[in-house]
């Protein structure tokens, strides 16, 4: 099959050298990203406006992103969408290049709070969206609404076998810490030991450990899974397929996360990467992007362009009070990270 | 002591001792072999374990080289910051090890150690606690620290689960070519270790049970017990110190508290030894069962070979000797020609052969003696003495069987003259020839009558001089005797040719018949002699019976025979006819043809008198044929005269039926006179049919098929069984006149009634003959008998009278 495609391609190139030339003249931008995280209309607009071709490489988890970068030592990508907590690691690995702020006039619209939320973020990263990690569940399939991580990690009969975790042991351990009343950034061995016991006990009731897919076949839409770890925007997107899907930021608090775009040190087209970052931070574009992904934008100018409904949606913009117990991840010490890994690998068994 | 017992006693030890010796030798040899084989087996198992351990070790070593060359693993070892190692590389490396372990599940623990022995990364695929992350001090690690080799391999107890496992550890030394000079000395970066389970080996050790008290075990190189199969756990204390001294590879015996053991050892790894401990007791158990098997084989072989030997002895020696002994006893008991079977071609066989030869010789000489005593020296015929004995015996038999016996006494006429004129030599010669000729004529005798003598049934003897006698034991009438006499006389009267000269001799014969002519041999001989003299007196060359009554009988019979022939020639027989009426209509159903003979010399002779003679002489065929022709011709005439429905019944003799051509003869006759087969009844007597062979039945069937009616005459005089009638090809049953005449007496009515009913049930027509009274007639009518015949209706009448009556219409027929 692959050979066939190559032959077709070759003949195409030989027969139409003009088309070849046109293709040659288009600039390519390679973005390492979550799937469904860029509005395709905006991408198309950008491609037309700048005679560019945007190629996205998708990853399925934070860990997988690091692995992909590791495999090429950071080569092959122009833009990388990363979680805030990984920025410092990537900088230390030498995979990132600092921003040329002259090329990013729209940076001015971005919230200073989010721009400084993580080490190195200010110089290396442009905040994209922020959100929370909580629980998405089917209100029609549970008797009592889910309000806490405790219900999730120590499930009742009605949830047993119908729970989905993230494909990210780190997030699972962090939320388990929350359910036990610890900080999600705790490095306390006793706290971690309790998490281990909690997760071991929960393991038999877990249906799967993978991110929910954003379509009508999603396990939650189908009802195979009744409660799942979820990002707030993802839960809203799935609710379009089934309006019984609810999202809750549990009373113990969840994670508050911020995704950033960073520019790869070995980017083939660093200029185009800057152009793209400035394009999506144009307030109009940023507003359209937020409406597409149902996440809160750090672009303050864009915020003003969004509907009241959007801005008043407590899931997208939670009340200060409900965010009270939620935390940002802070970078862990390497030794602590090793312990987390060991725990995760035990959970894998 | 009997020969059998002696021979057996001699042979018994000859067989038993060598067999027992072979049994013992076999036992010793087999025990030796089984011990050797046991040792061999142990060493084969050792070889197998050795190669398996070697195999898994080498595989693990090469895998370790392979794994440690994976870029990610190399990068991990080269990472110089904890951040890089734990934040970036840890998880991917974990995944890599996870993948490796999926493919090699027996590598249940994969470990990456830092140069100082810190267990940095550990991947396990079974729940296993981790007792220490600091491996410094573990045996595998320590070995590597001091060793020049990059790889250490040992089987050791895993402190985490206390199980034996194979530890393969590789020292990782590398140059970081990103920052170091390619020529720089490689630095120690850490260690990569595989922990592989060796359950397969332990399972095999557990399963290789060499006996209840034997088994395989493992120790390290200092003799510390590493593995003991469960069934040997009782030996645990016993074994302490056994391997303390440096293990030896030679097989040897060791004394333990629980007994003596055979010990074999093999080094599998530098710190791993396998030992096979075989209890003497197990060896003894094995050899005991072997012992039992051999004992059984020996006993069975002994029993079998002894039986065979005794059997052969009995067959080959004892039995022939017993036979010989019995033969000799038989011989001495006076039995002649005692012969015994010759069984073999050995000395005993020769002896038996000699015995048989002797027996035959003895018999021959006995024969000669007997001949001299019993037989006439000249003619070799029985002599007077012998004759007396024979006659006496024959008379006893005849008396017992209530039979007649004939004695023919022959005396040559004027034989004295021959002797006188031609000399005794010629006379003797003639006597011999005469004896010979008499013999031949008796032997070849074949008369038309029932006399057909076999040598046993006549006894020719020479009484002495010119006198001969013949005893005839089976004949049907004295006529036969006269025939034999006539024949013998004729035989003697034929000329004898001797040295070119014809000699004429004649003889006179006298015949006496037992019992009428005497009931002792002497009396019978005397009377035959007297009859012979009578013959001589009456003119020689003839025979006379002693009894005048017999003489007369013979004369009459001869006369009758002669006149019968004349009658046939001159056609003086006549046929009369008697009517048979249909019981329903009283009309004539049939005319029975009855033969009549009015002889010029004998007068009117009844058929019951001359038909038996005709049957004996064979004249019956000619007479029967005449009757058939005559009756058919007459029927034709009558039918031509307008009596179309007339039918005729013709009597047929059993003798006629015996001729195969009889059916054709009847057919030809019917055709000749143009007579319908349906208008002919053939009447046969019961005896003719019953004695009839299948040919007779076939003949009757053939006739019946074309329409000739077959009637069974005189029913009730013979077997009187209705059941056999079913199988006979007959149409009509003719009940004998005596039944009819007996009506009113005893049960005759019931019987007759039953016969009629049953015969009709079998589709047979029934004729009652001899109906003479109205009473009989009334009864038969009541019983619906089909046809009636008798004086009550008509007497037999001549052809002419019948013809006249037919013409006049006096007789009606259906």
The counted number of beta strands of chain A is 10
Straight-line N-to-C gap of chain A: 37 Å
The mean pLDDT of chain B is 85
Average the pLDDT over all residues of chain A and give the rounded result: 89
Beta fraction of chain B? 15-25%
Q: From N to C, what is the helix and strand string of chain A? A: HHEHEHEHEHHEHEHHEHEHEEHHHHH
The count of β-strands of chain B is: 27
Task: Tell me the helix content of chain A.
Answer: 40-55%
The multimeric state of the shown protein is heterodimer
Query: Which residues of chain A sit in consecutive blocks of at least 5 with pLDDT less than 50?
Result: 1-23
Biggest sheet character of chain B: 8 strands, mixed, barrel
Number of helices of chain B: 24
User: Percent of residues of chain A in beta strands?
Assistant: 15-25%
Report on the structure:
The complex is a heterodimer of chains A (349) and B (814). In chain A, strands 1, 2, 3, 4, 5, 6, 7, 8, 9 and 10 form a ten-stranded mixed β-sheet that branches. Chain A has helices at residues 2-15, 17-25, 40-50, 62-72, 87-93, 112-115, 121-124, 149-153, 169-179, 189-202, 219-222, 232-239, 270-280, 283-293, 300-305, 308-312, 334-348; strands spanning 27-33, 52-58, 79-83, 96-97, 125-138, 163-165, 206-209, 227-231, 245-248, 255-264. The model of chain A is unreliable at 1-23 (pLDDT under 50). In chain A, 43% of the residues lie in helices and 17% in strands. Chain A starts with a helix and ends with a helix. Chain A is globular and about 60 Å long. With 349 residues, chain A is of the alpha/beta class. The longest helix of chain A has 15 residues, at 334-348. Chain A has 17 helices and ten strands. With 814 residues, chain B is of the alpha+beta class. Helix content of chain B is 50%, strand content 21%. Chain B is built from 24 helices and 27 strands. In chain B, the strands form five sheets. Chain B has an eight-stranded mixed beta barrel, surrounded by four helices. A five-stranded antiparallel β-sheet of chain B has the order 2-1-5-4-3, with helices on both faces. In chain B, helix 15 (620-640) runs parallel beside helix 17. Chain B is elongated and about 170 Å long. Mean pLDDT of chain B is 85; it is low at 446-456. The chains are: A alpha/beta (349), B alpha+beta (814).
């Amino acid at each position: 099959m692959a050979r066939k495609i190559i032959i077709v391609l070759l003949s195409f190139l030989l027969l139409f050298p003009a088309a070849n030339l046109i293709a040659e003249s288009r600039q390519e931008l390679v973005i390492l990203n979550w799937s469904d995280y860029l509005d395709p209309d905006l991408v198309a607009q950008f491609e037309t406006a700048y005679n560019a071709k945007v190629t996205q490489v998708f990853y399925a988890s934070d860990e997988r992103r690091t692995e992909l970068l590791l495999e090429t030592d950071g080569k092959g990508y122009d833009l990388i969408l990363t979680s805030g907590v990984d920025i410092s690691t990537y900088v230390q690995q030498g995979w990132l290049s600092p921003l040329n702020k002259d090329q990013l006039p729209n940076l001015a619209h971005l919230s200073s709070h989010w721009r400084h939320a993580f080490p190195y973020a200010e110089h290396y990263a442009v905040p994209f969206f922020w959100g929370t990690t909580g629980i998405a569940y089917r209100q029609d399939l549970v008797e009592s609404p889910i309000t806490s991580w405790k219900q999730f990690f120590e499930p009742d009969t009605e949830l047993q076998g119908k729970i989905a975790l993230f494909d990210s042991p780190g997030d699972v351990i962090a939320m388990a810490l929350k359910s036990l009343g610890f900080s999600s950034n705790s490095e306390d061995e006793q706290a971690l030991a309790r998490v281990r016991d909690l997760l071991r006990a929960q393991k038999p009731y877990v249906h799967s450990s993978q991110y929910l897919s954003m379509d009508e076949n999603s396990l939650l839409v189908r009802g195979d899974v009744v409660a799942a770890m979820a990002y707030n925007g993802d839960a809203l997107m799935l609710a379009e397929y089934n309006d019984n899907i609810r999202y809750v930021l549990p009373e113990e608090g969840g994670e508050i996360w911020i995704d950033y775009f960073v520019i790869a040190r070995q980017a083939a087209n660093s200029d185009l990467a800057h152009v793209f970052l400035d394009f999506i931070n144009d307030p109009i574009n940023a507003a359209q992007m937020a409406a597409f992904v149902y996440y809160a934008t750090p672009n303050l100018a864009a915020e003003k362009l969004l509907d009241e409904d959007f801005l008043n949606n407590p899931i997208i913009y939670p009340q200060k009070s409900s965010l009270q117990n939620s935390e940002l991840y802070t970078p862990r010490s390497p030794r602590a990270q090793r312990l987390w890994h060991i725990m995760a690998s035990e959970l894998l068994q | 002591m009997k020969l059998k017992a002696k021979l057996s006693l001699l042979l018994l030890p000859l067989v038993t001792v060598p067999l027992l010796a072979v049994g013992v030798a076999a036992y010793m040899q087999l025990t030796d072999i089984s011990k050797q084989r046991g040792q061999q087996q142990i060493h084969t198992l050792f070889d197998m374990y050795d190669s398996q351990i070697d195999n898994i070790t080498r595989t693990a070593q090469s895998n370790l080289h392979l794994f440690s060359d994976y870029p990610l693993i190399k990068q991990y070892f080269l990472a110089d910051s904890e951040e890089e190692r734990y934040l970036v590389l840890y998880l991917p490396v974990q995944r890599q090890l996870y993948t490796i372990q999926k493919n090699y599940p027996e590598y249940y623990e994969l470990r990456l150690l830092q140069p100082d022995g810190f267990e940095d990364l550990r991947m396990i695929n079974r729940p296993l606690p981790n007792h220490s992350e600091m491996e410094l001090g573990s045996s595998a690690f320590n070995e590597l620290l001091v060793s020049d080799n990059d790889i250490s391999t040992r089987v050791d107890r895993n402190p985490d689960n206390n199980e034996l496992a194979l530890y393969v550890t590789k020292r990782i030394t590398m140059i970081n070519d990103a920052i170091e000079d390619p020529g720089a000395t490689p630095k120690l970066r850490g260690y990569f270790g595989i922990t592989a389970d060796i359950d397969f080996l332990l399972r095999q050790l557990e399963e290789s049970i060499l006996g209840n008290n034997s088994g395989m075990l493992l120790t390290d190189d200092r003799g510390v017990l590493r593995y003991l199969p469960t069934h040997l756990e009782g030996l645990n204390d016993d074994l302490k110190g056994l391997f303390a001294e440096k293990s030896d590879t030679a097989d040897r015996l060791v004394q333990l508290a629980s007994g003596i053991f055979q010990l074999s050892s093999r080094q599998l790894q530098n710190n791993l030894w396998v030992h096979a401990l075989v209890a003497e007791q197990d060896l003894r158990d094995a050899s005991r069962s072997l012992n039992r098997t051999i004992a059984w084989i020996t006993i069975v072989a002994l029993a079998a070979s002894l039986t065979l030997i005794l059997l052969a002895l009995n067959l080959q020696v004892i039995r022939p000797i017993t036979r010989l002994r019995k033969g000799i006893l038989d011989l001495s008991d006076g039995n002649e020609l005692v012969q015994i079977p010759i069984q073999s071609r050995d000395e005993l066989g020769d002896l038996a052969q000699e015995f048989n030869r002797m027996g035959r010789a003895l018999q021959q000489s006995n024969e000669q003696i007997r001949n001299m005593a019993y037989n006439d020296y000249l003619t070799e015929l029985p002599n007077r003495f012998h004759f007396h004995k024979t006659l006496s015996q024959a008379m006893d038999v005849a008396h017992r069987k209530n039979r007649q016996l004939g004695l023919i006494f022959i005396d040559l006429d004027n034989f004295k003259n021959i002797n006188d004129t031609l000399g005794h030599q010629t006379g003797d010669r003639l006597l011999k020839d005469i004896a010979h000729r008499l013999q031949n004529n008796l032997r070849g005798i074949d008369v038309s009558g029932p006399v057909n003598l076999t040598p046993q049934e006549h006894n020719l003897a020479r009484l002495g001089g010119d006198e001969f006698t013949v005893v005839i034991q089976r004949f049907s009438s004295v006529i036969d005797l006269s025939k034999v006499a006539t024949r013998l006389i004729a035989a003697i009267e034929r000329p004898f040719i001797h040295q070119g000269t014809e000699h004429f001799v004649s003889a006179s014969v006298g015949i006496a018949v037992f019992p009428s002519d005497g009931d002792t041999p002497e009396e019978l001989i005397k009377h035959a002699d007297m009859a012979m003299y009578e013959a001589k007196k009456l003119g020689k060359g003839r025979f006379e019976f002693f009894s005048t009554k017999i003489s007369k009988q013979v004369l009459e019979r001869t006369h009758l025979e002669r006149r019968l022939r004349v009658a046939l020639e001159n056609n003086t027989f006549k046929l009369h006819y008697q009517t048979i009426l249909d019981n329903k209509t009283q009309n004539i159903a049939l005319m029975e043809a009855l033969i009549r003979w009015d002889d010029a010399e004998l007068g009117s002779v009844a058929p019951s008198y001359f038909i038996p003679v005709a049957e004996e002489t064979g004249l019956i065929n000619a007479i029967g044929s005449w009757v058939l022709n005559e009756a058919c011709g007459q029927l034709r005439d009558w039918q031509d005269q307008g009596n179309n429905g007339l039918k005729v019944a013709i009597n047929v003799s059993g003798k006629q039926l015996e001729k195969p051509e009889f059916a054709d003869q009847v057919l030809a006759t019917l055709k000749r006179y143009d007579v319908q087969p349906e208008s002919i009844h053939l009447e046969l007597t019961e005896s003719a049919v019953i004695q009839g062979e299948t040919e007779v039945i076939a003949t009757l069937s053939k006739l019946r098929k074309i329409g000739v009616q077959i009637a069974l005459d005189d029913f009730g005089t013979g077997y009187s069984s209705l059941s056999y009638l079913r199988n006979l090809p007959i149409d009509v049953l003719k009940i004998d006149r005596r039944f009819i005449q007996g009506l009113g007496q005893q049960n005759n009515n019931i019987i007759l009634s039953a016969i009629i009913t049953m015969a009709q049930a079998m589709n047979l027509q029934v004729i009652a003959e001899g109906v003479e009274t109205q009473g009989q007639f009334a009864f038969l009518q009541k019983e619906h008998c089909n046809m009636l015949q008798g004086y009550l209706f008509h007497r037999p009448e001549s052809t002419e009278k019948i013809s006249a009556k037919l013409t006049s219409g006096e007789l009606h027929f259906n």
